[in-house]
């Protein structure tokens, strides 16, 4: 009997990703945005036209890729406030053209030093997820501003005050509300109504912002100016931080709403103690290319890397057939997620076998599970990276926890050949739903990325809350080098589906011969060691889907997966910037000096 293609609701109440149309063809513009650009002098790709323009402005004025990345990120904090901002965190991957090295910054949010494994328990039972999200309990120490400061200090050529100016201007003058922004506001309307500061900021006159209207945020412009003057000290040791702590410890909820917005634990000492971690990237070799990603506390680099090692055991001929490509891609994702869920957490708090997970020999020991004619069954047991054994599992399968899907990614390159892949987030669409009064930004709900309680009884859980611990992420900013020089860089939002999106974009470009813009636009599927694979309607409508079902794959429909951006260095030295043609309202790619 052929497996059922089960249509399920699209997590719309959480993700804000409402577009149900099939992806457009590469190169088509949506809403005036251009998803592909080619030229000289540097490139920027993000989900938003104003943010991409901010980055290009910095490049045109002589700034480098790091300067432009921070400018783009700050602008996204204005125009994409439900996905990013200084109330959140992220991961920054940087290629230095002078040294030829890739370095990363872990700017993930942290729990309070007083947090423990019972953070989300009441009367010994885990809180309902929605109760935990819209509360001070979910708010971790923000890392975004510290990431900007560290990136500029180490590799930038401009100071923070200067690169924040384009974003300040957008916040002061306002930006044009589009359908995606209105849709995402509508998904948060009930929460925003319950917090006067959020209501005043995002619901003008108590109503949804009108498409085509201008939304201003002078409070955020003033906050950015204060941040720039103090080089982030105002947030980590000053008045902005004091306002953050006051807000999360005493959530300013409307008493008439009846909402129980639980207080959080983060305090001024936690903010003052926060540090961005500079660390080595993950690294694997795939088809002769060097692939670099972000190491734990994110699971992105280890899981993408392990999946590539698994796929690397298949020849290009194996992957030439579209059905076999899809089958092996889904199986590599399934296997690597089985290991990710069991082994990856914050390495400062738990032992994480990063080196072992990325060992090609371990990938080969797991790849032998793949049957070219039949799909594996999930949940699949993890392997033991410390003692690899061919085709063997180790212990019980570990369930996939829920992870919020709203994040944003930007990719930047400059005329000197430096490259940045940077993914930043406040977790859910709208984060905690709690805006800091008078400051113009939302607080994250990143701590809900912890598992509230052990997912599998009797199996050690690396992702439980703990003091000053960072919750596991799936963020996967990736830079690929060819012969030591930039080849491409990419990343995406999408919660745990970030990993499969980045993997699909990379293999689409490297193995299938798609252009980067085609690889980004291609229909997506996401298998994360679950009984059914999430897939977009266009994927389900493909001729390959029926053949995959006959092999035992089961699919559920979801409107869209991810919203990737990327850049590629062309053989003649030009930069190609690529973004989504349709997903999340379409992305915006630009170059300093267009050549076509």
TrEMBL record:
Pathway the protein contributes to: Sulfur metabolism; glutathione metabolism
Keyword line: Acyltransferase, Glutathione biosynthesis, Hydrolase, Signal, Transferase, Zymogen
Methyltransferase among keywords: no
Stated family: Belongs to the gamma-glutamyltransferase family.
Protein name: Glutathione hydrolase proenzyme
Gene Ontology molecular function: glutathione hydrolase activity; leukotriene C4 gamma-glutamyl transferase activity
Binding residues for L-glutamate: 108, 449, 473-474, 495
Presence of the UniProt keyword Hydrolase in the record: yes
Biological classification of the source: Bacteria, Bacillati, Actinomycetota, Actinomycetes, Kitasatosporales
Subunit structure: This enzyme consists of two polypeptide chains, which are synthesized in precursor form from a single polypeptide.
NCBIfam families registered for this protein in UniProt: g_glut_trans
GO biological process: glutathione biosynthetic process; glutathione catabolic process
EC number: 2.3.2.2, 3.4.19.13
Signal peptide extent: 1-26
Post-translational modification: Cleaved by autocatalysis into a large and a small subunit.
InterPro entries for this protein: GGT_bact, GGT_lsub, GGT_peptidase, GGT_ssub_C, Ntn_hydrolases_N
Catalytic activity: an N-terminal (5-L-glutamyl)-[peptide] + an alpha-amino acid = 5-L-glutamyl amino acid + an N-terminal L-alpha-aminoacyl-[peptide]; glutathione + H2O = L-cysteinylglycine + L-glutamate; an S-substituted glutathione + H2O = an S-substituted L-cysteinylglycine + L-glutamate
Positions annotated as active site in the UniProt record: 407
